[in-house]
């Protein structure tokens, strides 16, 4: 059997950079959320916001790449699995944008501007409003947990294809040579 066609090198790099950024931002978010007010907590909040804006930028770049470069054809699998995979990818892309945008909205509504890497001030796109900040904080957290669940399901499906189906699906996105 010939090896399955791979994604482009750019798609692979964007995939793994985004995966690493999401895992790190989620981990920092979990850790910092329950810290008492301190310089460390403020520093972690800034890092978390910087990561969120980075994730937003990487997501836009990844979506642009995806829209302009056709991915490899689906591997042979039952129609329901192909449909589920396409739905999963759509939900992942939605979450890639929703989670950081909700975090940015929360920061804006709470009155804490986002200054990317301490250099580039980003505009507030919602007014300062305590009730709105509380709503966006809750939505950001729920969306982040939703993204985490989607990522775990995505990883689980990739591992199922690798270890059970042994169909070469994982190798198409794995860094390096197939």
From TrEMBL:
It is a multi-pass membrane protein. Residues 6-176 form the Cytochrome b561 bacterial/Ni-hydrogenase domain. GO terms for molecular function: electron transfer activity; heme binding; metal ion binding. Keywords: Cell membrane, Electron transport, Heme, Iron, Membrane, Metal-binding, Transmembrane, Transmembrane helix, Transport. Pfam families: Ni_hydr_CYTB (PF01292). InterPro entries: Cyt_b561_bac/Ni-Hgenase (IPR011577), Cytochrome_b561_oxidase (IPR052168), Di-haem_cyt_TM (IPR016174). GO terms for biological process: respiratory electron transport chain. Its cofactor is heme b. The chain crosses the membrane at residues 12-33, 45-65, 91-119, 139-159. It is found in: Cell membrane. One of its GO terms (cellular component) is plasma membrane. Belongs to the cytochrome b561 family. PANTHER family: CYTOCHROME B561, CYTOCHROME B561 HOMOLOG 2. This is Cytochrome b. It comes from Pelomonas aquatica.
């Amino acid at each position: 059997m010939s090896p399955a066609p791979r994604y482009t090198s750019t798609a692979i790099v964007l995939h793994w950079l985004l995966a690493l950024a999401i895992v790190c931002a989620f981990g920092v978010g979990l850790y910092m959320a329950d810290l008492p007010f301190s310089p460390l907590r403020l520093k972690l909040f800034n890092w978390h916001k910087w990561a969120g804006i980075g994730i937003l930028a990487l997501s836009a770049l990844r979506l642009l790449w995806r829209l302009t470069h056709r991915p490899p054809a689906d591997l042979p699998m039952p129609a329901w699995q192909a449909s589920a995979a396409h739905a999963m990818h759509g939900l992942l892309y939605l979450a890639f944008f929703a989670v950081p945008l909700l975090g940015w909205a929360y920061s804006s509504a709470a009155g804490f501007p986002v200054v990317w890497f301490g250099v580039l001030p980003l505009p507030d796109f919602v007014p300062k409003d305590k009730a709105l900040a509380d709503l966006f904080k809750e939505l950001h957290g729920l969306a982040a947990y939703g993204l985490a669940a989607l990522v775990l399901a995505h990883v689980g499906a990739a591992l199922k294809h690798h270890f059970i189906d042994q169909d070469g699906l994982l190798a198409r996105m794995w860094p390096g040579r197939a």
